[in-house]
């Protein structure tokens, strides 16, 4: 079972016997993945600190979901900044699927009263892994954050649908970046 420290800041949901486990990432995969801060602050991804990824979350024995609810104000983004500059929200996630596993990503931009203002979801694009799994990166960009966004809800799910597959979906290297482009003298 996962050490609770490894799941800090995440809300987890599982069905039946399903559980999240913490697994080591192979050295070869670790070099390709490169870990970054979860919430990057308006800097190109290439400029972020890049460390070796050593661990990942593995969804085992059924459907597992893991989510975060981000309060933008608590992260230093005041309401007027979001409303006037309308940043691009970029969500990146790395996952590993083999045959008989599925992965899903959902991102919602929410108002102060928790209404969904914008959403990206891969539920129509459920990834079904190949026989020989590999790490993949998924990246969603939500351009022009609508006025009124106060929260970001992020959820990814993993499931092994083939009972013979005990490896499960592996997920790591999740990040959310707010990209601001504001020209001096610009008026809204």
UniProtKB/TrEMBL annotation:
Domain of life: Eukaryota
Pfam families reported for this sequence: FBA
Residue stretches making up the FBA domain: 1-180
This protein's GO CC annotations: cytoplasm; SCF ubiquitin ligase complex
SMART domains per the UniProt record, alphabetical: FBA (SM01198)
Coiled coil: none
InterPro entries: F-box-assoc_dom, F-box_only, Galactose-bd-like_sf
GO biological process, one term: SCF-dependent proteasomal ubiquitin-dependent protein catabolic process
Matching Gene3D superfamilies: Galactose-binding domain-like
GO molecular function, one term: ubiquitin protein ligase activity
UniProt protein name: FBA domain-containing protein
